[in-house]
Amino acid sequence: MKKNPLTLQRNWNPDDFLPASEEEKESLVIMRESVSFWKDGFRRLKKNKVAMVSLVVIIVIMIISFIVPMFYPYTYEQQIRGSENLRPMAYSVKELERIDAGEKVFPHILGTDKLGRDYAVRVMMGSRISLLVGLIATGIILIIGSVYGAVSAFFGGKTDMVMMRIVDIIYTIPDILLIVLLSFALKAPLNSLAAVPAFKWIQVVGVNLISIFIVFALLYWVGMARMVRSQVLMLKESEYVTAARALGASNARIIRKHLLTNCIGTLIVTTTLQIPSSIFTESFLSFLGLGVAVPLPSLGSLASTAINGLNTYPYLLFAPALLISLIILSFNLLGDGLRDAFDPKLKH
Amino acid sequence: MIKYILKRLLLAAVTIFVVGTLTFFLMNMVPGGPFLSEKAISPQAQAALEAKYGLDKPLFQQYLTYISDAVHGDFGESLKQRGRTVSGIISSKFPVSARVGGCAILLSLLVGIPLGCFAALHRGKVLDSFISVISTCGIAVPSFVICTLLMYFLGLRLKLLPTLGLASWKHYIMPVVSLSFYPTAYIMRLMRSSLLDVLGQDYIRTTKAKGVSQFMSLFKHALRNAVLPVITYIGPMAAYTLTGSFVVEKIFTIPGLGGEFVGSIGSRDYTVIMGTTIFLATIMVFMNVAVDIVYKLVDPRIKLK
Fold first, then answer.
1. CATH number of the domain that residue B100 is part of
2. Is the ipTM of this complex over 0.90?
3. Which domain holds residue B26?
4. DSSP string, A69-120
5. Nearest by CB to A181, which of B26, B144, B148?
6. A288: which chain B residues are within 8 Å (Cβ-Cβ)?
7. Complete domains list, chain A, with CATH
8. Which DSSP category does A344 fall into?
9. pLDDT in tens, B113-163
10. Which residue in chain B has the smallest CA separation from A325?
11. Measured between alpha carbons, how far is residue B241 from residues A185, B38, B180, B236, B265 in Å?
């Protein structure tokens, strides 16, 4: 049949429809699995020796402060009569008698304080409290800060202006003043709330501790909010946000599903760096005597008590001072490592 | 330039006013009062005291009185330290804190900037990693730990330095060193990273190509640009350091403004709280304005709007 010279019809061979040969298939084989965001980040993190060492240190400190006290033969508030102010690894007269009688007495590894409480377990409990404050306060800060920052940037305009001026004002007031005022102000309402049966748990955790959580949460979310806002301002112009809006997604869904999930790198880094600064502030507050209530210890209050007897019992200072420096140092180093791994743009 | 400075000063006044207002109402929201803790006085005497200082009036009226007095330069009398005016307390305590703080700022600049430059110039060598280890530790160790360790080893063990008060120049050494620890470490880090940034720029390569000596290219071209982030940091840092650190003042028993401030919050000495907060905010805001002006002087490219 003669073809029209103007036709677009092609000449097909039956060979063109044969199954592909092995050789041809090879070009389509995926050589390497696609790397997800998390895998990529963790691969880079694993290469960073300093960050991995600090991660191990953090895990060891967590085991020591959360698990070891459960099996420890002494408790943090138990006062042992007759063994006040013992040096590290020393025994009191009574305990020596018991050892002579064939009994086993667990040594006071770090000695005892002036009320005869085993210092090693107190330091462990202290670091538990410090870590708890760091982690929980940072969790609350993460939630408030990221939502506030995202909402402010997403709606923009006047909303953004008003919301950011509030942030600026919180920034300018000296934070120590706010902390002290708020922790005094919160004490009475929390105490009365603790009297209500449904809120009994407040007494278990301690009014002071909860007021510290709230104060930190109310104060320190501003940094996080600024960080998230600057990210969202950039992200909200992306095509996928426009696409989501065209598909009829609600504002809440866009913020939750698209904007915040894309800030995850910044969020991880800011959170990890917020933890040591919360611990730092808590220890400072405890040092002022505004932190957790006695007999609950925190590393700051232990150090602050130890200063009064510095001349006679210097060893009481070293353990909490060292531990708090170690915790803050390793969280800082881990945060730096995470920043390099998950947010290479931020790298200096 | 002058117009810009005037505008900034006006904005600064607004900020100070907002901070003062917020502090006033926050402070009064907190339960308790300046005369509640004194058990020895009778209710009548307490009421008389409150009437004397105008604390029995409605809160808003108290606020108006305070603001109009403050605008006229009268910050009132201390409620707790009878017969002392707030301005008197600040002017007697601030110089003490400022002397210690000023020395600390000088020390941290004199140590931090050269060491940071040194680390950047010897990037990747042993000394560089040594300096970064020191600066990371300096940031991680809380000030009260540094203070107490210094006090224990230098003061109590070796008996090299006196531990309490500010009687001679020797007394200054430990508070100044412990106060400057954190800023030094921070400036070192900042200086290192910003100098590394600048050294990678094209104009530094140009100076090398022109045959400018390394010394000149560093001091004339690189440092001037690299020091900008440090200036930004020094503004608020100087404000905090000059007005005194509570921890350092408590440990070394220095009668400074930081201790006065925290003490006044504890005892609800309303006028002192207000006075010191406004003072602190003023210094803070003016430091920020000063930083912007210095910025302009160091880097003529920056346009002040």
1. 1.10.3720.10
2. no
3. 1-305
4. HHH-SS-TT---TT-TTPPTT---HHHHHHHHTT------TT-B-TT--BHH
5. B26
6. 246, 262
7. 49-78+117-346 (1.10.3720.10)
8. G
9. 999 998 888 887 888 888 888 888 888 788 878 888 888 888 777 777 777
10. B141
11. 28, 33, 9, 9, 19
